[in-house]
User: Which sequence fits this backbone?
């Protein structure tokens, strides 16, 4: 299918799923750039992807740049196809889908970069944690892999945050709600449990689909109300909320706590938890919520307050579900530090909107490939043989996964094409790729 590029069948089987999202020429470019992004140990710019695929002398760089700036394809269609693939392969049939939402800043400079602005940057040094660049809201499916004790987040959708759109830009919460609604339509028959930080709570959540639940951290000053009582028989509109409940501190003093066992952050622990059903009317409107108060270290009051619309979940399930939200933080860190996501320097609106979702999809494809075709029990032993100082290493890391995929890409590039002895240039190229992968 690709005369200029040879890909391993295990990876090509995953890439073929996305063929309906592109035209025939764009799909060939998509496969080439995806392979180049995954094989490139250096800069993952658009031209860097061409170099990683070994196509820099065969394809014009205009072909790669036009793919992200002018070609006919949608990053949302790509992300939804990826979400369906992830759920089909890694989520048990009929099980609910756990989704995490968060936002992050990819630093950019230059007045001509589309949607550039000053945003909160938690990694910035100094008292003012702000940075210049593009801010993205990312939606990731959280899965459990048999060879990992921690949950793994696979990014599937990303929306760019704008500040200067008239009449008013969409908030991060609105973008998150839109992506979750798209996921709900793309995964019919599946319940979706969303976990997000305290910033993702607002009136926008009143428009969630019925089979979508939302779990978030409860603000300390949240106004909670009791459930409305039965109708009194009097004329007029019935009450939509009961009496105002006391503050969380007072509520924790009168609540009945009980020990629950939760599995979080790779460990199993026992904490004290109490659950209260009420209304968070300012956020969810008349939809009832379950407030879970958790005592982890404190003996009085509470350490963490969570609110969820999933009334059937136990306090242990809600606590573990919220703890799994940390996996999206790990995925974002891996995207920046290991995969080089966000290194593209394009500036046009369409290119900026589509390049980062494309590279995030490639990151999830690499993890998906390793989970379905690349994992071997001896991978950890092989890594410890190369680096014996990692005495406690028992699971493959994200760097191990992408390194193995790079080796498979290199082997597929040289083995079927050249049946004779390799040239010195080819041997040197393979050695460099192996050294970069090990490093």
Assistant:
């Amino acid at each position: 299918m690709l005369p200029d590029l040879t890909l391993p069948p295990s990876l090509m089987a995953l890439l073929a799923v996305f063929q309906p999202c592109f035209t025939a020429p764009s799909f060939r470019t998509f496969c080439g750039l995806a392979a180049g992004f995954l094989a490139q140990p250096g800069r993952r710019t658009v031209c860097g992807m061409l170099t990683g695929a070994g196509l820099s002398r065969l394809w014009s760089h205009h072909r790669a740049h036009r793919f992200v700036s002018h070609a006919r394809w949608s990053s949302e269609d790509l992300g939804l196809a990826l979400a369906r693939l992830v759920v089909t392969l890694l989520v048990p049939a009929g099980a609910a889908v756990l989704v995490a939402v968060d936002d992050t800043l990819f630093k950019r400079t230059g007045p001509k970069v589309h949607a550039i602005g000053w945003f909160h940057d938690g990694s910035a040094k100094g008292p003012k944690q702000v940075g210049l660049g593009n801010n993205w809201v990312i939606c990731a499916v959280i899965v459990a892999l048999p060879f990992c004790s921690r949950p793994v987040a696979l990014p599937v959708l990303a929306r760019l945050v704008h500040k200067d759109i008239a009449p008013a830009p969409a908030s991060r919460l609105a973008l998150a709600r839109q992506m979750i609604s798209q996921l709900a339509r793309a995964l019919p028959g599946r319940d979706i449990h969303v976990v997000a930080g305290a910033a993702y709570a607002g009136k926008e959540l009143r428009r969630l689909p019925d089979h979508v639940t939302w779990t978030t951290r409860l603000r300390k000053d949240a106004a909670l109300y009791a459930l409305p009582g039965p109708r009194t028989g009097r004329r007029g509109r019935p009450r939509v909320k009961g009496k105002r409940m006391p503050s969380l501190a007072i509520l924790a003093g009168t609540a009945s706590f009980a020990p629950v066992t939760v599995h979080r952050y790779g460990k199993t622990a026992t904490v004290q938890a109490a659950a209260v059903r009420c209304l968070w009317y300012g956020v969810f409107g008349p939809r009832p919520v379950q407030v879970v108060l958790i005592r982890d270290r404190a003996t009085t009051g509470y350490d963490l307050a969570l609110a969820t619309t999933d009334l059937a979940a136990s306090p242990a399930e809600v606590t573990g579900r919220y703890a799994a939200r940390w996996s999206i933080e790990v995925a974002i860190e891996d995207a920046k530090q290991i995969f080089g996501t966000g290194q593209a320097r394009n500036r046009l609106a369409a290119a900026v909107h589509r390049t980062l979702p494309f590279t995030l999809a490639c990151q999830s494809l690499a993890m998906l490939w390793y989970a379905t075709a690349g994992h071997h029990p001896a991978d950890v032993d092989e890594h410890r043989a190369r680096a014996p100082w990692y005495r406690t290493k028992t699971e493959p890391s994200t760097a191990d996964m992408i390194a193995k995929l790079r080796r498979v890409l290199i082997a597929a590039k040289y083995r079927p094409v050249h049946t004779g002895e390799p040239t010195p240039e080819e041997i040197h190229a393979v050695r460099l790729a192996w050294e970069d992968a090990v490093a």
